[in-house]
Write a structure and sequence with these properties.
6% strand; 48% helix; alpha/beta; 340 residues; 16 helices; two-stranded antiparallel ribbon
Length: 340
């Protein structure tokens, strides 16, 4: 009996070493200011800490942008307090989307379909030690190659804690259903995305299309938006595997109620919010966030068109699925939804 207890104790210790506890709390931002002095870059020159700059009103004048970002952060914390009754510990899996820039003291949680390709390009310029100079010169596929940027999950528990305490943590979000429609358009209506068609399209058609044609079952390249919605709200989908990151909820990718984000940027104010982050890092004269030349970006009006053929029943189920993202980031319920 005693040996059994000892065995259980050893097993628990081993498990505990893997699922480590990140000693990081929502109200830690105030104590962060006292941690560490100016950062030093690879040339040995001191560089200001962006987190210090954010919370030091003497270094950066109050502006409308700063006030807006402060309001977002406060609202996020309020919603987290209202809807999070049990806190849990962070695991390495939770930190895979947090990109690390040790040179400038930045942690960026990337969210697909929210300008993450351009942000990765910018961070490759900042961390590339002179290898890259112009973000748009970096091919989009290279920006997503594993290994080009380090993520927080690659570090030890002590190193993770230090970075969470002393680095500027930022995230960019987007109206949830515009992001969802953007993901659908990109992954299921573009002929070149054959990997997604095979991986997800064939499964969606097999499960949610009555009497599918053999060609569709084989290729998976003609998934309708209605079928995509059925797939998302089907309980079996998440029982089998987690959502793909392109349509996973932001709160499940970046854990904003467990990690205190200092800046919550929005796709709707992308240019000004990105410029502000680069100013905080002291690199706005070295690199500029790329301006989008897209003429086909997904808008609210476009999203409304896609939802026209979704029944009120499935609209409500889908809204409930993404409800926390609407609440956390202060997005109103779309007027085109028929939820009553």
């Amino acid at each position: 009996m005693r040996k059994t207890k000892v065995g259980r104790l050893i097993l628990a210790t081993c498990l505990g070493s893997f699922f480590f506890i990140i000693l990081y709390f929502q109200n830690s931002s105030r104590s962060v200011i006292a941690l560490g002095g100016p950062r030093r870059n690879v040339t040995g020159k001191s560089r200001r800490n962006p987190l210090h700059t954010l919370y030091d009103n003497d270094q950066l004048e109050q502006s409308a942008v700063q006030a807006s970002l402060l309001g977002r952060r406060e609202l996020l914390e309020e919603v987290c307090r209202s809807h999070t009754h049990k806190r849990r510990v962070l695991t390495p899996e939770d930190l895979r989307h947090l990109v690390v820039d040790d040179e400038h003291g930045l942690l960026y949680c990337y969210v697909p379909k929210v300008a993450c390709t351009n942000w990765k390009r910018v961070l490759m310029v900042l961390t590339g030690k002179g290898r890259y100079h112009e973000p748009l010169a970096i091919p989009a596929n290279e920006a997503h190659v594993p290994g080009n940027l380090r993520t927080l999950s690659e570090y030890s528990a002590a190193e993770i804690n230090r970075r969470l305490r002393s680095y500027l943590k930022f995230i960019f979000v987007r109206e949830p259903f515009e992001r969802l429609v953007s993901a659908y358009r990109n992954k299921f209506t573009r002929s070149y995305n054959t990997a997604f068609h095979k991986r997800y399209g064939t499964k969606i058609i097999r499960r949610h299309r009555p009497d599918p044609k053999p060609r569709s079952l084989e290729r998976g390249n003609d998934v309708s938006f209605e079928e995509f919605v059925y797939y998302l709200v089907d309980p079996q989908t998440q029982r089998e595997e987690p959502f793909n990151e392109h349509w996973e909820r932001v709160h499940s990718l970046c854990h904003p109620c467990l990690i205190h984000y200092d800046v919550v940027g929005k796709y709707e104010t992308l240019a000004q919010d990105s410029r502000y982050v680069l100013q905080l890092a002291g690199v706005d004269s070295e690199v500029r966030f790329p301006t989008s030349g897209k003429t086909t970006r997904t808008t609210g009006d476009m999203a409304a068109q896609f939802f026209r053929n979704i029944s009120p029943f499935y609209q409500k189920k889908l809204f409930n699925l993404y409800r926390m993202d609407f609440l956390l980031f202060n997005y109103t319920t779309p007027t085109y939804l028929k939820l009553r």
